[in-house]
């Protein structure tokens, strides 16, 4: 034994070779925490002092190394830029010392090697990769870029253009793609991986295959002349800036960093990388994206806690086909759970099957699924007009029209067809689960399961607990949502639940803006510039103005003090003119079909005339006014949901908005947005708009938190 640590061991093999094994004790995956980094340094020192002739690097877990343990490095990011640079350079010394070992090194990549895990692989001389593994540098998703030498080594191994593409995209890459650009040297089947890597190492140790020249090239400058450099970097910066958008600086900064260190050897290049990394680490974008990552981990842990009493869902059913039912059926079948799809008409069944087929065809086109896989998925969807085979269904999701009388009738009828212990769930977006449960004999086996449209894209599922819903029911539905590849958040029952309850005050602020003279197209542009994927008028068209009017009535009844509108709104007049948005090609915008068959919004003078007909005044409104008048009601309603116990944690509230309605991720969620403004400053901002009514009135608890200097996120 050359070295023994908690996460790393080094032992001798035959013929003067040795093996370094990553196996972090008491963890399901390997990751670089501070202790493992220290052990890497110690193991490298022990190896440098040994008479080893070659080193094999492996993992004893299913993954190789999934990256850095971000929770441990938060203390780094709390320092000033110089402090971050010092810490990152200290860590880099260990990777560089490993790279400088006086003998060849081969890494066997058996599973996920991401972030710092792949940077470890790049420090080795040769990389052998399992055909089932994935590698990548996803740091841009946290508002960062690689900091353990990744921009330096990858650009020298695969070329600047390929490195830029991988780093800026932050994607996970399969073995064939990695081999194609030279990121790995050999691809092997999983059961042959270790032997293949060991055989390569033996050839290196005997001198049959060289490694010193390729190591020197990796540690040297990028081989680009001035014209090539300009072509690669200047073109990439423009393209990536357009793709990433103004709110996400890390991808472009990564390109600039590679350009800056292109003409330097490794150590100077790594110092340049460290400086760029520290600059990104101190941005609000990185802090918020890291916060979202940690919140995501937190809500997954909460969901795991809910599933302890879960029954296994082997077969599901959806009531009501159509677009939503078809989407639910597709998602369940695609993720492996067979599902019945029931409707009362053949037309509905066909619509649902067409939706599932369309989504599967797209997966085939993108090469994420082959034709056999598509057929297998479709075979897991069983259409029916009767309840004949509902006797062995574990969970039924009701997705019929958003009408309480219809839903109650369908739910009661279905309940009588189910086996003992089977669970009913409603995909309602606004109707009280407690009220719907009054139609059932076993309300404890009923809850809400609210999917967001389009089902296949939106990650969130709200699991709504009614007054009589049992813990076992919640556990099983949470587990089923996870099996479908969704992120479930458990919320308590109220009008609109969590996400729609928070969204409609935003729409309420929008209605008042139009009443007071704002131009809706300008409002959309301002809010899209703020970071929303679409502005409120466009969003209302996508949701459906008829759906919005119905939901607004439910919200007004539930929260009349602040959500009841005492004036005719632009949404009302659109509805009365039967302009429902994308679904019938007319709303705030007119919709035409583009070359790809997708709806394209076009400005419509008639819509502007209709909005003008309900305008009561023509106020001068600044961009800040528009942002504040929309964001304040949304943020305050999020505060109320937390205070009312609709959701248990700030993490769940913020992630619900990011995953459910596309709240700008770089802003971290509504409560994080308040934190970043400062609670006291936010309360003062609310008071500036107090004449607009209750939607803009802070709660007493919020005022108290502001007075005490508290925050929602630690």
Automatic annotation (TrEMBL):
CDD domains attached to this UniProt entry: crotonase-like
GO biological process assignments: fatty acid beta-oxidation
Recorded metabolic or biological pathway in which this protein acts: Lipid metabolism; fatty acid beta-oxidation
Database matches in InterPro entries: 3-OHacyl-CoA_DH_CS, 3-OHacyl-CoA_DH_NAD-bd, 3HC_DH_C, 6-PGluconate_DH-like_C_sf, ClpP/crotonase-like_dom_sf, Enoyl-CoA_hydra/iso, FA_oxidation_alpha_subunit, FadB
Top-level EC class as recorded in UniProt: lyase
Domain 3-hydroxyacyl-CoA dehydrogenase NAD binding: 315-494
Reactions this protein catalyses: a (3S)-3-hydroxyacyl-CoA + NAD(+) = a 3-oxoacyl-CoA + NADH + H(+)
Residue ranges of every copy of the 3-hydroxyacyl-CoA dehydrogenase C-terminal domain listed in the record: 496-591
Single Gene Ontology MF annotation: 3-hydroxybutyryl-CoA epimerase activity
Keyword NAD: yes
Segments crossing the lipid bilayer: none
EC number per UniProt: 4.2.1.17
Pfam families: 3HCDH, 3HCDH_N, ECH_1
Record SUPFAM superfamilies: 6-phosphogluconate dehydrogenase C-terminal domain-like (SSF48179), ClpP/crotonase (SSF52096), NAD(P)-binding Rossmann-fold domains (SSF51735)
Any GO CC annotation of this UniProt entry: fatty acid beta-oxidation multienzyme complex
Family the UniProt entry places it in: In the central section; belongs to the 3-hydroxyacyl-CoA dehydrogenase family.
PANTHER family in the cross-refs: TRIFUNCTIONAL ENZYME SUBUNIT ALPHA, TRIFUNCTIONAL ENZYME SUBUNIT ALPHA, MITOCHONDRIAL
Protein name: enoyl-CoA hydratase
Source organism per UniProt: Saccharospirillum salsuginis
Gene expressing this chain: fadB
């Amino acid at each position: 034994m050359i070295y023994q640590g908690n996460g790393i061991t080094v032992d001798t093999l035959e013929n003067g070779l040795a093996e370094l094994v990553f196996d972090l004790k008491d963890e399901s995956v390997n990751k670089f925490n501070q202790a493992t980094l220290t052990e890497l340094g110690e193991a490298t020192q022990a190896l440098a002092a040994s008479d080893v002739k070659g080193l094999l690097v492996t993992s004893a877990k299913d993954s190789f190394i999934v990256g850095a343990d971000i929770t441990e490095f938060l203390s780094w990011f709390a320092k000033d830029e110089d402090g971050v640079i010092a810490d990152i350079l200290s860590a880099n010394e260990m990777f560089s010392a490993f790279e400088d070992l006086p003998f060849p090194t081969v890494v066997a990549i058996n599973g996920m090697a991401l972030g710092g895990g792949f940077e470890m692989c790049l420090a080795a001389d040769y990389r052998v990769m399992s055909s089932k593994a994935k590698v990548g540098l996803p740091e841009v998703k946290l508002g960062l870029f690689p900091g353990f030498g990744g921009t330096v080594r990858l650009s020298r191994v695969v070329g600047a253009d390929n490195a830029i593409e991988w780093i800026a995209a932050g994607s996970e890459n399969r073995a064939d793609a990695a081999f194609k650009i030279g990121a790995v040297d050999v691809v092997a089947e999983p059961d042959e991986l270790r032997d293949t890597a060991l055989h390569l190492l033996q050839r290196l140790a005997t001198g049959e295959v060289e490694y010193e020249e390729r190591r020197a090239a990796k540690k040297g400058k990028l081989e680009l002349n001035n014209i090539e450099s300009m072509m690669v970097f200047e073109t990439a910066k423009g393209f990536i800036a357009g793709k990433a958008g103004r709110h996400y600086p890390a991808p472009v900064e990564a390109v600039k960093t590679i350009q800056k260190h292109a003409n330097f050897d490794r150590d100077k290049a790594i110092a340049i990388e460290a400086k760029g990394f520290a600059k990104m680490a101190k941005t609000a974008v990185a802090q918020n994206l890291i916060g979202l990552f940690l919140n995501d981990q937190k809500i997954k842990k909460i969901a795991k806690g809910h599933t302890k009493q879960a029954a296994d869902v082997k077969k599901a059913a959806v009531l009501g086909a159509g677009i939503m039912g078809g989407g639910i059926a597709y998602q369940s079948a695609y993720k492996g759970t067979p599902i019945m799809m029931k409707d009362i008409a053949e037309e509905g069944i066909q619509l649902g099957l067409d939706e599932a087929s369309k989504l599967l065809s797209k997966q085939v086109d993108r090469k994420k699924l082959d034709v056999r896989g598509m057929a297998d998925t479709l075979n897991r969807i069983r259409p029916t007009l009767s309840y004949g085979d509902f006797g062995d269904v574990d969970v039924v999701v009701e997705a019929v029209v958003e009408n309480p009388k219809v839903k109650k009738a369908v739910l009661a009828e279905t309940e009588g067809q189910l086996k003992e212990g089977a669970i009913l769930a409603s995909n309602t977006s606004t109707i009280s689960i407690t009220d719907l449960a009054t139609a059932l004999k076993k309300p404890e086996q009923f809850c809400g399961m609210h999917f967001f449209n389009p089902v296949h894209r939106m990650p969130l599922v709200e699991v709504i607990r009614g007054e009589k819903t049992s813990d076992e029911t919640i556990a099983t539905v949470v587990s089923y949502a996870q099996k479908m590849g969704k992120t479930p958040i458990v919320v308590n029952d109220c009008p609109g639940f969590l996400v729609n309850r928070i969204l409609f005050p935003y729409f309420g602020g929008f209605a008042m803006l139009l009443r007071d003279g704002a131009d809706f197209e300008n409002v959309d542009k301002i809010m899209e510039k703020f970071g929303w994927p679409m502005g409120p008028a466009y969003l209302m068209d996508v949701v459906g103005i008829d759906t919005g009017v119905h939901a607004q009535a439910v919200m007004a009844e539930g929260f009349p003090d602040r959500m009841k509108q005492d004036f005719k709104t632009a949404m009302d007049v659109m509805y009365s003119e039967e302009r429902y948005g994308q679904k019938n090609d007319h709303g705030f915008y007119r919709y035409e079909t583009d070359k790809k068959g997708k709806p394209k919004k076009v400005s419509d003078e008639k819509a502007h005339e209709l909005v003008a007909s309900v305008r009561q005044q023509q106020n001068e409104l600044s961009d800040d006014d528009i942002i504040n008048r929309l964001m304040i009601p949304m943020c305050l309603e999020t505060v109320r949901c937390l205070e009312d116990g609709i959701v248990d944690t700030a993490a769940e509230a913020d992630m619900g908005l990011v995953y459910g309605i596309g709240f700008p991720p770089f802003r971290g969620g509504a409560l994080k947005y308040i934190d970043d403004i400062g609670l006291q400053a936010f309360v003062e901002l609310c008071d500036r708009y107090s004449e607009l009514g209750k939607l803009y009135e802070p709660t007493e608890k919020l005022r108290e938190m502001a007075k005490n200097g508290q925050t929602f996120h630690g």
